[in-house]
Each structure stands twice: as structure tokens, then as C-alpha cells.
Design a protein that fits this description.
Serine Threonine Protein Phosphatase 5, Tetratricopeptide repeat, elongated
């Protein structure tokens, strides 16, 4: 079981063992470690840092104990925004001698340190960490089942985009398309974004958006982007069907009914446009930008009411 999972585990065998250790051997190095872990789970960050520091000092020759203590101390420091200290802790973990295959703790430390670098906007170092995680899991394939290996390729796409390393980002897009079991649609979608917005290939980008939606009809970002592209192209007849798919993904998003009603109106379909405008009134416009993943920001309610008053009597 990954330490990255155990950091938030508040029940189960590991947690029970920590409770027993802290009670049965409270003054031993492992008992102190267990106390630090339990303090972390209770968000007592200063106490957990002190416990892990004591566990390390009391038995510095125990490589396993020291490595795990630095790892969890790093999490404590991260959670209270002591980022430099967290980086130092995770780096200490990585300095312990590994066998031929990287261990879980080593991989977890890479992930956690990468998360810290991302938080402080050192994106190049964050990307290096994610890349090393990918390579480490290639070397120790029996651990892949415990990690979201495909997501790390997605994360690296985002980091390379931020760093403007577009060729490298496209390599991960292609990897997802060819190798992924669960995130193939994201490979198509992000490749479409690069083609449409950066590589002066709008048609190629549009084709990739379509493939993303075909591969995963629940990919809301792909569906919303297809609607945007079709609107720009003036191909209004195709839009309602994609908005219908989007509504299946987010049925509580009133702005989608409003948008579909608007395009029905553009096509001269008053019956369906009025039906959708009325349906849109059932849903709040609060948090629309968050709930629509940033694709919509308008308050649809005034427009829907106005449309109904004029066209749907």
C-alpha cells in the first residue's frame, strides 16, 4: 500500500498498527514515529514534525525509520506551507540508497516533491520529478497498479504546456492515444488543443476534439470545445446534438439548456427553443464557471426569462 495513500488513511491495518505502537512502545523510536503519524492524521502538524524529528534523532542508523520519518515530516511541512522544509525532507528521502528497483517511498517522495515545486511555480523542477516517477514505474512495473500512471503523462502535458515545451507535450499526447486504457480521450483532446490554438491546424484540432468525444462521450471539455468550434464555423445544425451530450454529463447545468434553446432558435425551431429556455429556469446560475469547467460564465436566467416573454407566449 502506497505511503501516499496511507497519509490520509484513518482506519485499516496500518492505522491500527500505528495506534498499537504508540500505546505499547510510546518511548521507542517506532512508537514516536507512530505518534507522529497519528498527529498528522489529526492535523496536529507542529506536533507531528516534532515527533518525526525525535524519531530520526533517536535512531538515525535505522534507514527505514529515518526514510519514512522524513517522508511524513515532509507532508506535515507541506500542509502548513513550509515549502522549503518540505522539499528538504523529500530530498532526504531520495538520498537514501535504493535497490535496483525504486521503492514506493522513493516514488511517493518524488510525487510529493513535484507537488511542492508545482505549488511554488517551479514548473521545470516539477516536470523533472514527474518524468522521474514515470521512469521509476517503468523500472518497477509491479507497483504501477498502485499509482495513476496514465495521469502522470497528463500532468506532464500540462507542465510542458506551461513551459512552452510543445513538442514534448505532444509526445505524451501520442503516448496516451496509443497506450492508455482510460485516458485516451485526453490524449486526443490535448493534442486537439495544441493543433487548434498553437500549431495553425484548426481542422486537425477539430478532428481530434471529435475523436476525444467519440472515445469518451463524458468528456465535457471536448463537447464544450466542439460547440465553440462549430459556433465559430457557423455550423449551427450540428450544435444541439453536442449540447444534448453535454447535458447528459452535467444535467444540473442550466446554461446548457439555455444554450441549446438559443441554437434551436437560430435554426427556427421555436417549440424546442421555448422548451429548453423554460427548462433552464429550473437551475441556478451560481458557480456556473466552476461547474462548467470554465467554459461558461454567464447568468442565463435573465436571458431565458426575456426570451420566454417575447417568444414563448
Amino acid at each position: 500500500m502506497s505511503g501516499l495513500i496511507l497519509r490520509i488513511q484513518k482506519k485499516g491495518m496500518f492505522h491500527t498498527n500505528m495506534i498499537n505502537l504508540s500505546k505499547s512502545f510510546p518511548d521507542s523510536s517506532y512508537g514516536i514515529f507512530a505518534k507522529g503519524y497519528l498527529n498528522l492524521n489529526q492535523s496536529k502538524y507542529e506536533d507531528c514534525i516534532a515527533d518525526f524529528e525525535k524519531a530520526i534523532k533517536n535512531n538515525s542508523n535505522d534507514i527505514y525509520l529515518s526514510r519514512e520519518s522524513f517522508f511524513y515530516k515532509g507532508i506535515c511541512n507541506f500542509d502548513i506551507s513550509k515549502y522549503d522544509e518540505a522539499i528538504e525532507d523529500f530530498t532526504k528521502v531520495l538520498e537514501f540508497k535504493e535497490g535496483q528497483e525504486p521503492s514506493e517511498t522513493y516514488i511517493n517522495a518524488l510525487l510529493e516533491r513535484s507537488k511542492v515545486y508545482n505549488r511554488i511555480k517551479k514548473y521545470d523542477l516539477a516536470k523533472e520529478g514527474i518524468s522521474e516517477v514515470i521512469e521509476s514505474l517503468k523500472k518497477n512495473k509491479k507497483l504501477i497498479q498502485y499509482y495513476d500512471y496514465e495521469q502522470y503523462h497528463v500532468d506532464r502535458i500540462s507542465l510542458n504546456y506551461t513551459l512552452k515545451n510543445y513538442a514534448a507535450a505532444l509526445e505524451d499526447c501520442d503516448w496516451l492515444i496509443k497506450e492508455s486504457k482510460d485516458k485516451k480521450d485526453l490524449g486526443y483532446f490535448y493534442r486537439g488543443q495544441f493543433k487548434y490554438k498553437l500549431l495553425d491546424d484548426p481542422e486537425g484540432g477539430y478532428e481530434d476534439y471529435l475523436k476525444a468525444a467519440q472515445t469518451n462521450p463524458k468528456n465535457f471539455a471536448a463537447l464544450a470545445t466542439i460547440v465553440e468550434v462549430l459556433n465559430k464555423k457557423g455550423e449551427y445544425k450540428k450544435i444541439p446534438s453536442y449540447l444534448t451530450l453535454a447535458i447528459k454529463v452535467k444535467p444540473q447545468l442550466g446554461v446548457l439548456y439555455y444554450a441549446r434553446g438559443y441554437f434551436y432558435a437560430q435554426l427556427g425551431d421555436r417549440v424546442n427553443s421555448c422548451k429548453d429556455m423554460r427548462e433552464s429556469l429550473k437551475y441556478s446560475s451560481e458557480d456556473v464557471e466552476r461547474d462548467s469547467e470554465g467554459y461558461y460564465s454567464m447568468d442565463h436566467l435573465p436571458g431565458a426569462n426575456s426570451f420566454i416573454n417575447v417568444n414563448c407566449r
